[in-house]
Structures are given as structure tokens and as C-alpha cells.
Amino acid sequence: MRPVNDPILSVRDLEIAYRTGRKESVTAVSGVDLDLYQGQSLALVGESGCGKTTLGLGLLRLLPKLGRITSGTLLYRLKDGSHADLLGMGKEELRRFRWNQAAMVFQGAMNAFNPVARIFDHFADTLRDHADRKRWTKRAVERKAGELLETVRLDPDRVLPSYPHELSGGMKQRALIALAIALDPQVLVLDEPTTALDLLTQRQIVQQLHELRGKFGFTMVFITHDLGLAAELADRVATMYAGRIIETGSARDIFYSPKHPYTAGLINAVMPVHGDRPALESVPGYPPSLKAMPPGCAFHPRCALATEECKLAPVALDVLAERPEGMTHAAACLHHDRVGLDGGTGARLPSSTEGEATNA
Ligand SMILES: Nc1ncnc2c1ncn2[C@@H]1O[C@H](COP(=O)(O)OP(=O)(O)O)[C@@H](O)[C@H]1O
Ligand code: SF4
Ligand SMILES: [Mg+2]
Questions:
Q1: Strand residues in 92-182 grouped as ranges (E)
Q2: Pocket (CB within 6 angstroms of ligand 2)
Q3: Alpha-carbon distance 192 to 196, whole Å?
Q4: Which of 53, 66, 195, 244 to mutate for ligand 1's pocket (most ligand atoms within 8 Å of CB)?
Q5: How many whole angstroms separate alpha carbon 120 and alpha carbon 164?
Q6: Considering the entire predicted model, what is its pTM?
Q7: How far is CA 76 from CA 34, 119, 208, in A?
Q8: Which helix (H) or strand (E) holds 230?
Q9: Which terminus of the chain has a lower count of CB atoms within 10 Å, N or C?
Q10: Are 156 and 178 in contact (CB under 8 A)?
């Protein structure tokens, strides 16, 4: 995991919209800037509906039909050292790019397998479609798939001839992760890879992701609403709210010193309880509808620190601590200096309503 200075992926001013009617669309992701460096593990966190999946899919141009990247650049450094803007790639280039350079494990991926194809066939099809077809004889596929399955602690003799329904949820998820790295991608995007799995299986998957990263050195974008998981797997965190990244930094900065009240609230909801602290102090209210975005800072209707100023204009990310290789701590909050820590153990939502409080 040796980061080099040139980012593997540079995202600039990315905006993604979904068509919702003949002439209507909603913007699900906007203003995203991101530099990812080799070997890093970035957790994209935030409540359901904040745009994590949309951004993850956008990074590989895998958006569903109604979704469209409306502006921005996605510059990848490819394995051969050359650079390419994903948005400029044609169909054939994209086909070669996916799986080889970047791969995705989809949300709800356990249903991603074709139910009438054996696991072996999934490996064979992927390897043959996206790499030198002649090289992937039956034996070569078996060897490669066998190695990968063993890395995620699955027995190839049992799993390769099986149909997806013959495997447990955890086994399927592990097989999918093995499949996603079959062509040794530089970037792996995992969307909620442990959601819907029991705790023990979650632990195994986390452990295996650690091991796989150590072995293959890929860069990981890990989408989750579970901050506990992010704390375990990520060395960088980006919090999303209403389609924007509203805080970003090293996992250490984010978990020990969050500077956006929303991140602080998310962390507070999962931090272990100490002393007489209330068990759960989450973020009150609900995220806004994309069709009726609050003016100014989109978080203001839920924010205990909000002032009139917060409602006037969108709040940009402000650099709070410069760090190398994408680790810079930045938060989009006018009052970040008032977001506090709780005895050094974690963050708390600002409990006082100094200034003009607007949350219900
Ligand atoms: N196919 C779609 N058509 C229209 N809106 C969509 C579609 N997919 C997602 N959205 C909207 O985009 C926003 C972000 O969704 P998503 O990226 O799935 O969020 P998350 O993964 O954080 O839960 C949500 O408001 C969602 O309703
Ligand atoms: S204090 Fe203002 S700018 Fe900061 S999160 Fe709250 S509403 Fe947004
Ligand atoms: Mg999602």
C-alpha cells in the first residue's frame, strides 16, 4: 500500500442527474471533487438517499438509463501510466476499462449473479469478455477463479460448480468480491458490501477486504451508511449530504475531530456509550427532497448551529488542515469551529442552541 504522488483517479466538479419526466430531472450528485491515491481506502458515508450509490456508479460510468453525468471530469491513471478521461471513452474503450482498471460490487449484489449460470460460468464470462479471450481456457479459468476463491476462503471445488442459490448470502458476497478483482483492477468500488449480512459474516468480509487490499493493493471506495464499518476499513472518509460531499479527511480527522455537524451527528449515533451519555443522539429530521432543496446550506433545517447566514448561499468546502494525498480535512460549514468533541471519545451534535436555532 505505497501511495504515489499521482492520483489514480481525479474527479472534478462532477454532477449527475436523473431524468424524472419528459423535461424534468433531479440533480442527485453535484460539485464533487475527489483525488484518490493508490492503495487508499475511502469510505463514502451518509444517510440513505444522499447520493452515495449514484456517485459510486458514476465513477465507473455505470449509471442506469435515466441517470446521466451532466458535467465534470473523471481522469483515471491507467495501469500503463497513461491518463484517460472516462467521459471521453467510447463503448469499446469502456468495455476494456471496466473490470481491468476499475470494478464495482453493486449494492444488493447478492442478487447480481445470473441465477441460471454456475459460479464457474460467471468467472469464465467475465475473464473472456474483458481480457484476452484465447488465454482463458477452461483450465485457466478454473485455476484463476480457484485462487481468488481461496483468497476469500471459499472452497473452489464446492463453489465453482454451484448455482448462486446454492450458496449462502455471505458466500455469494465473497464470490462476487473475488469476481470483481479477477482482472486485478486498480480501483474497486463496493456499495454496501456487508448490508443484509449477519454480524459474523460482516466481520469475515471486513477481514477479507483487509487481506485482499494487502495482497493486491487496489484502491477501494467503500460505500456505507454504517460508520462503524467505515471506521474499520477506511483511511479516508467523505461524508455526503443531499448529493454533495460536505466533509472529507483522513479517518482519524473525521472520527476524532469532525467539523461538520452532520458528520458529528452520524458519528455520535454509533459511538459507544460512555458514562451517562444518552445511548443514541442521532441527527434529527430527514434529508431534503432533491426536488425541494433548502436554500443555502442544505443541512440547515436540521442543524442546531444554523444561523440566518447559513440560509443565504451554498456553503463550499473550507480547508481546515492541509494534508498530503487527498487527506486534507475540509468541511462545508460556516460554523465548523463550534462543532465539538466529547471528552475525546467521539463527536456530539452541538447540544446548545446558541445563535439562531432552526431545527424543530
Ligand atoms: N433511477 C433513479 N431515478 C430517479 N432518481 C433516482 C434514481 N436512483 C436514485 N435516485 C435518487 O437519487 C438520490 C440518490 O440516491 P442514491 O444514490 O441511491 O443514494 P444512496 O446510495 O446514498 O442511498 C435519491 O434521492 C434517489 O431517490
Ligand atoms: S452551521 Fe450552518 S453551514 Fe454549518 S452545517 Fe449548520 S446550517 Fe450548515
Ligand atoms: Mg445506495
A1: 102-105
A2: 260-261, 297, 299-300, 303, 305-306, 310, 315, 333-335
A3: 9
A4: 53
A5: 10
A6: 0.91
A7: 12, 30, 26
A8: helix 227-233
A9: C
A10: no
- What pLDDT score does 196 carry? 80
Cα distance between residue 93 and residue 90, in whole Å: 5
Residues in the chain: 360
Q: Please state, for a pLDDT cut of 90, what percent of the chain lies above it.
A: 72
CA distance 220 to 208: 13
Counting ligands in written order, the one closest to the CA of 107 is 3
Helix (H) or strand (E) holding 127: helix 119-130
How many beta carbons lie within 10 A of that of residue 290, not counting itself?
Answer: 18
**C-alpha distances out from residue 259 to 233, 267, 344, 348, 349, Å:** 21, 11, 14, 11, 10
Nearest CA to ligand 1 atom 14: 51
What are the residue boundaries of the structural domains of the chain, listed by start? 9-234, 264-338
Question: What confidence tier does 98 reach under pLDDT thresholds 50, 70, 90?
Answer: very high
Within 6 Å (CB) of ligand 1, which residues are found? 18, 20, 26, 28, 46, 48-54, 64, 66-67, 290
Domain formed by 9-234, architecture: 3-Layer(aba) Sandwich (3.40)
- Which one of the ligands is nearest to 54 CA? 1
